[in-house]
Amino acid sequence: xxxxxxxxxxxxxxxxxxxxxxxxxxxxxxxxxxxxxxxxxxxxxxxxxxxxxxxxxxxxxxxxxxxxxxxxxxxxxxxxxxxxxxxxxxxxxxxxxxxxxxxxxxxxxxxxxxxxxxxxxxxxxxxxxxxxxxxxxxxxxxxxxxxxxxxxxxxxxxxxxxxxxxxxxxxxxxxxxxxxxxxxxxxxxxxxxxxxxxxxxxxxxxxxxxxxxxxxxxxxxxxxxxxxx
Length: 229
Fold this sequence. Notes:
single chain; elongated; mainly alpha; two-stranded antiparallel sheet; 11 helices
């Protein structure tokens, strides 16, 4: 009889705990929606964290990491989903790792994740990021290949955001590829290709005269040329 009473008590406790967890989950689901409605990013993060604790899923972790990386909180994003490449990673998971690692200066590791996405579905947007990383890591030939692909496939509607100024700005992705082409051309042979590089940067600036990165790169080359004269 005592064993039966104990069993009933345990089962009742488990039932109450399950009900409490379900109620908590419903609460944080409503809280999540309200925070989204109010545009409260930290509130959304708090809600998603609680939901992942109550009912953990990889999709929730990916969503939480995406919010972190969108806010520039790259280390928190990687702490949420890890930095290893897994066969089961979603495209979102892979993209988050690529963006966060790149922002943290881990360019070689970021390149691996961008290339993984590119192999699944090539696009000018991914080609630009890969070319930029290859340029920074010294793979000039690889970067040139991606730039040529980008120029052949980019559309006039495609744009990219740049962050080297205090206020981020967008410009034409085609202009972006021409900027990279100019830098790559110069990197191949600084003396022989200086004029060609400047001309290529001028093509980028013809598309967008306010393209700051192309402008300051052109000014640097012109300054070098003037110093040689």
